Amino acid sequence: MSNLLEVHKVVKQYGDYVALNEVSLNVPKGSIYGLLGPNGAGKTSLIRIINQITLPDSGEVILDGEKLQPKHVQHIGYLPEERGLYNSMKVGEQCLYLAQMKGLSKGEAKKQLEYWFERLEIQGWWNKKVQELSKGMAQKIQFVVCVLHKPKLLIFDEPFSGFDPVNANVIKDEILALKEQGSTIIFSTHRMESVEELCDHIALIHKSNKLIEGKLVDVKRQFKTNSFEVGILTNNIEGLMYDISQKFTVLPAHFKSLSDELKLEIQIGNATPNELLNILTQRGQVTHFVEKIPSVNDIFIQTVTK
Amino acid sequence: MSIISLIIKREFISKVRNKSFIVMTFLSPLLFVGIAAFIGYLSSMKAETKRIAIHDETGLFAAQFIKQNAEKVEFKYLDLSKIPVQSLKDSIAKESLDGLLVIPKTNKIKDLEGKIEFISNNSPSISFIENTQNIIANEITKINFQEANLDTVAIKNAQANVNIHLAKASGEESLKGLNEIKIAIGGSFGYLIMMFIVIYGNMVMRSVIEEKTNRIIEIIISSVKPFQLMMGKIIGTSLAGLLQFLIWAVIGFALMFAASAFFGVNVGPTAKIPPELMHTAQQEFVGTAQMYINELWNLPIASILIGFVIYFIGGYFLYSSFYAAIGAAVDNQTDSQQFLLPIIMPLVLSVYIGFFTVVNDPHGTIAVVFSMIPLTSPIVMLMRLPFGVPWWQIVISVTLLFASFFAVVWFAAKIYRVGILMYGKKPTWKELYKWLKY
C-alpha cells in the first residue's frame, strides 16, 4: 500500500519556540490515521502545514507523489477543531461559497450539497441563517462543507466534539463510509476510545517530536508486556502461587467477572502461553484467560509521561 | 470563477445586502439636504433684537446710528445722550439694555479716536464692533474733511470703485462666486473621501475580526491564500463603496438637472451667462441662482469625479490595508483603538490642511507637498482639483499613492497572515514587527 501523504523532516519555528522538530509521517492510502499527542505537542502546527495555511521552515510534504502545491487544496478537506461559519449568512449560500472555494463549479456544488443534506436529513436548513442553528447543527454543516468536494485526504480535528451520541454515531458511520469510498483520513483527537475504534494507523507527537508511528496493531505489539489476565477457581491458592512464581512474575489484576475467582496478571516473558496454561489447569478451573493488549490510552500515557 | 472574484462577490453582496448600507445610501442624501435646510433656516431666523444705548456727548454720531435702525433688525439704537452714564450702566447691569456706547466730549474731534467705550454684559460680535467703528470713523473723516475745507462731494465722486472680473487664460469668463463654489465642492469631496475611507476601512476591519472570532478563518485559508482573502475583502468592500458613491452621484445630478430646469439655465459647459445678468438688480435672486448653477456646470465635473474615483480607490486601498492588518492583529474591536490612532491622524490632518491651507492658497507649497504625500494626498489633492492642478503634479501624486499602496499591502499581508491565526493576546507594536519576519 502506497502513501497518500508523506511528511519529510518538517521543522516549524515560531520565534525561539520550536513547534515541530524534524517530524516525518507516512499516511498510507485508504487508512484512518490517528494523529495523537498532548495539548501543545505540535499537532495543529502540522495540520496547518499540511493544509498550506502555514509553510514549514524546512522539510517537505508530498501529497500523492507530488510536492504540496496550492492546487492541492482541492484534494484536502479540513475540519478544524475550532469550528466557525459566517453567522449572518444563509446555510445554503455559505455551503455553496465554501464549496466553490474548493474548486467545485456552482452546479456540481449544488448537486453534492443536495446529496449530503438529504443524507444527513437537514434539507430544511438551506435558507436558515447559521445563527439560528444549534451548535451541533452547525457542526453537521461544517462536516458537510469539509467532505463535499470529495477530497482524497480528509483531516478531522476532534470531529465528535459537540455531538450527542446519536449524531456522533451518524458522523462515525459517515467517516467509515468515506474510508470505504477510498478517502484517506487523518484523525486528530483526545478521545482514545474512538482511536481504538476507527484508526488503523497512529502517530504520537510529543513536545514537537514524533515518538511513535505505525499500524495500530504493530504499535500495540511493540508495547505489549506479554501479560495475561487469568481467572482461576482453586482450593490450593498457595500451591498455585508457588508454582507460578517459580517461572513467572505475578501481579494482582482487576477485571470484571461473574464468579468469585482468583484474579491474577501474569507476565510470561519469553515463555509460551501454553506453559502457563499447563500449570494453571493442573491446579484448578480456568475461568478467564486473556492476553493483556495495551490500549491506546495506556500507550499514550506511558509514552507521554516517560 | 476564480477564487478571488468569488471572495469579492461574497464581500460585496454581504455589504450591499446589509440593512445599514441601504439605509445609509438612501437616507444620508436626505439627511444631508435636511441638515443643510436646517442650517439655512437657523441662519435666516431673525436674531433677537438688541437694544443699544448711545450716549453721545458730542451730538455728532447718534443720528448716524439711529439711521441704521431702518436697515438692520439685529440692533435697535437708542439715543440716550441726556441720561447720565451711570444710570445707563445700571440698566445694563439690570439687563434692560444690552449695550452702551459712550462717546465722550473732547476738545478736538481727533482726540476721540481712542476714547470711545462700549459697555455690555456679553462680549459683542466682531461684525458689530467693526460696523460701529466704521460708522464713527466715517463720521470723523467727514468732519476732518470739512475742517480742512475739502469738498466731500468731490472726494466721494473721485473715489474709485473697482470691480475685478475674474477670467481664465482660456478666455472663459468666471465669476467671483466661483471660488466659494470651488472650496465647497473640493471641501465636500475631500470630506467625502475621508468619510468613505473611515467607514469602509472600518467595514474591512470588522469583517476581518468577524472571520477571526468566528473561527471560520481557518477553513477559508485552507482553501485560499491569506493574501487573496485580504485583497478580495478590500476590493469587494470598495465596490460597495463605489456603488454607494455612484448612487449619490446619480441623485446629485438629478437634483442639479432639476434645479437647472427650475431656474431655466441652459445645461452644458457652453452655457454663458450674459454679463448684464450680474448687474441687473431686480433679477438678483434668480440671477445669482442661475449664475451658481451655471458655474457648477462649468466646473471640471468630469475630472473631479474621475479624480474622486481614482483617489478614493488609491486612498481607500492604502488605508484599508492598514485596517485589515489591524483587524487581523486584534481579537475584538475594543483592542483596535491603540492601532487606529496613527491611521486616523493623517486623515484628520489632511482635512485640516484642506480646509485651512488649500482654501487660502490652493497652489502654495504646503498644499502642493501634502497633495503628494500618499497618506494625505487623496483628501488634499481632491480639494485642490476644482482650482485646476497641473497634470504633472497629479501624475506624481497618483504614482506615489499607488506605489505606496503596493508597499503597504505587502506589509499588511504579512501581518494579516500571521495575525489571523493568533488568538488570545493583544499584540504590541514590537510583536507586530516580529510578525513581519515570520
TrEMBL record, chain A:
Family according to the record: Belongs to the ABC transporter superfamily.
Does this UniProt record's set of keywords contain Transport? yes
Q: What is the lineage of its organism?
A: Bacteria, Pseudomonadati, Bacteroidota, Flavobacteriia, Flavobacteriales
Keyword list (alphabetical) reads: ATP-binding, Nodulation, Nucleotide-binding, Transport
**Where's the ABC transporter domain?**
5-232
> Superkingdom of the source?
Bacteria
Report whether Ion transport shows up as a keyword of the record: no
Enumerate the Pfam families for this protein.
Answer: ABC_tran (PF00005), DrrA1-3_C (PF13732)
This chain's source organism reads Flavobacterium shii
Query: Which Gene Ontology MF annotations are present?
Result: ATP binding; ATP hydrolysis activity
Matching InterPro entries = AAA+_ATPase, ABC_transporter-like_ATP-bd, ABC_transporter-like_CS, ABC_transporter_ATP-binding, DrrA1/2-like_C, P-loop_NTPase
- Put simply, this protein is called ATP-binding cassette domain-containing protein
**Signal peptide segment:** none
Automatic annotation (TrEMBL), chain B:
Where does it live in the cell? Cell membrane
Offer one Pfam family short name for this entry: ABC2_membrane_3
Identify the SUPFAM superfamilies for this entry: Periplasmic binding protein-like II
UniProt-recorded Gene Ontology molecular function terms: ABC-type transporter activity
Q: Which UniProt keywords apply?
A: Cell membrane, Membrane, Transmembrane, Transmembrane helix
Among InterPro entries, the record links this protein to:
ABC-2_transporter_component (IPR051449), ABC2_TM (IPR013525)
Please report the name of this protein according to its UniProt entry.
Answer: ABC transporter permease
Task: Name the source organism.
Answer: Flavobacterium shii
Q: What is the lineage of its organism?
A: Bacteria, Pseudomonadati, Bacteroidota, Flavobacteriia, Flavobacteriales
